[in-house]
Structure formats: C-alpha cells, structure tokens
Write a structure and sequence with these properties.
By secondary structure, this protein is α+β, with helices and mostly antiparallel strands. The chain has helices at 2-19, 28-110, 121-127; strands at 114-119, 129-132, 143-145, 169-170, 177-185, 191-202, 210-216, 219-224, 239-240, 246-255, 260-269, 285-296. It has two domains: 28-110; 113-296, no CATH class.
C-alpha cells in the first residue's frame, strides 16, 4: 500500500508540473516543442523578406524597362529629327534650284532683242504652212527664235549693212538683231496667209526709240512708234506702229504649193530719235511675228 501511494504521488506531481507553474523546468515534450516553435517563427519570417526583395526586384526591372523605353523613344526621335532635317534640306535645295532656273529663264526671256517667229501649228499640220532658215526647207518647223543681243546700245539705221537681208538665219550685229527665214507652202493647196508682229513685253519705254525693218522678198519697210507729240511717224520710218502692241501686218494671196516668201527682220535702237534718252537704259522689249492661213483653195 505504501508503494502504491508513492507511485500515485509521483504521477500527481508530474501532472501538476505539466499543468502549473513548472514551466521553468518543463517536461521533455514541452522542451521539445519550444525549439520547434522558434524554428517555425524563423521560417515564417523568411517568406516576408523574400516578398520585399521581389518587390524591389520588380521595381528595379520596371525602372530599367522605362529607361529602355525612353532610350528607344529618344533614338526614334533622333532618327525622325535627322530624317526631317534631310527632307527639309532637300526641299530647300529643290526650291532654290527652281527659283534659280525661273530667274535665269526670266532674265534671258526679258533681255533686249528677243524675237520669235511662229506659224499656227494646225496650219502647219493640215495645210503645210511652215518655217525654215534655208530655202531648201530640209528641216521645217512651226517656230524659230533669233539669237539675243545683250546690252544693245543705240545706233543709226544707216549703220546697218545694205545687204543685211542676204544672209540666212541669225546674223546679228553688235547693236542690232538680224534674222532671215522663209515661209513655205509645203502642202498641196493654194493658200492666202496673214502675218502680224506684236510686242509681247516692253519696259522703261524702250519702244519709243526702237525701229523694226521688215524685208519681204527684198522689199524693205521700216516701222517705228508714232512721235511722242502725236504728230505722225518719225522721219526715218516708212510707217507707224499700228498700235501700242502691234507693229505691222502683212498679207499674201495665191500662195501656191512649193512657194516660199523670204523675210528678214532687223531690230535696233535709233540714236537719232528724240526719245532715245538715258531713261530707257536697261529697258527690254520682245517681239513675236505670227503667221496664219486665212484662206485655202
């Protein structure tokens, strides 16, 4: 009985130590759990740290991605800027070239002494009325242009050679324009035609002192503008200009197939004209002589 009581007491003491304030010593099971609990706490903290590091890594990657995007955007902007600059430079170059060509054309077009002779293209194609610089008309065209005389100064009409109409094509003097051409009927019909010389452009009133001599098959006529006073033609002229823009007209009838009319046009500034003054220096004038068929049989 005494042994049983001791055994009972020991059991009660063990149970009391486990349930009460015997925590300092503890039981082997309790001591075994305590380290497990500490390890569990350490393990639970590790994932928390890894989440923070992942956030940092994500933010770093995001910043790097932004940097890459910005770099790519900057590179594209640089390429676009370079492309735009090159295109603008090319456009400016083309514009400058166009302006230069236009200026050159205007310069040569408006220089004193520009003269053109034309035939209506329809009349050439359908009726065979054409132009040539030679009587043989190996090469016939509907338009001819005389060579230009630059910086023409005034002369007297008496200074122009008497046989100026004996040379074909362009044969300018130092201070006058001389151009000989042939109007030819290369078709099969007999024609009647009309020719009209017009002033296309004039500056500084240079037309006040200009003279135009027309040789038709050797017969000469000199044309000039009416005197500034309005009192008829100048003394060295055979006829006045028909108007402020029309110099003269000519007409021919019975112009048979293979017929040709020879024309020589001479243009100069008449130094003896009272209107030939310093004010017209640098002036320009341009003429066109146009032929057309008025009747065909």
């Amino acid at each position: 009985m005494a042994d049983k009581a001791e055994e009972t007491v020991k059991v009660d003491a063990s149970e009391g130590g486990g349930g009460g304030g015997g925590t300092a010593q503890g039981t082997p099971e309790t001591a075994a759990k305590t380290p497990d609990t500490g390890q569990a706490e350490e393990v639970s903290e590790a994932p928390a740290k890894s989440k923070k590091s992942r956030k940092r890594d994500g933010s770093n990657k995001s910043e790097k991605f932004k940097d890459v995007v910005e770099l790519r955007r900057t590179a594209k902007e640089v390429k676009r800027h370079v492309l735009i600059t090159r295109v603008m430079a090319l456009l400016v170059g083309i514009l400058v070239a166009i302006v230069a060509v236009a200026y050159a054309i205007a310069y040569f077009y408006d220089k004193f002494g520009s003269f053109t002779v034309k035939v209506n293209k329809y009349d050439m194609a359908k009726q065979g009325l054409c132009l040539s610089e030679t009587p043989e008309y190996d090469h016939t065209v509907s338009e001819l242009n005389a060579n230009i005389v630059y910086d023409m100064t005034n002369i007297s009409g008496l200074d122009i050679p008497a046989n100026v109409d004996m040379v074909n094509g362009s044969h300018n003097g130092e201070n006058y324009i001389a151009y000989t051409f042939y109007l030819i009927n290369s078709g099969d019909d007999t024609l009647s035609y009309e020719g009209e010389m017009v002033i296309d452009n004039v500056t500084k009133g240079v037309d006040e002192a200009v003279r135009v001599a027309i040789y038709k098959n050797g017969e000469k006529m000199v044309y000039g503008k009416t005197k500034s006073s309005g009192q008829g033609k100048e003394s060295d002229c055979d006829s006045e200009f028909l108007s402020s823009t029309i110099v003269m007209r000519t007409r021919a009838e019975g112009f048979k197939p293979k017929d040709r009319d020879k024309y020589t046009v001479v243009i100069w500034l008449e130094g003896n004209d009272p209107d030939c003054v310093d004010a017209i220096i640098g002036g320009t004038i341009k003429f066109t002589l146009i032929f057309k068929i008025i009747e065909s049989t």
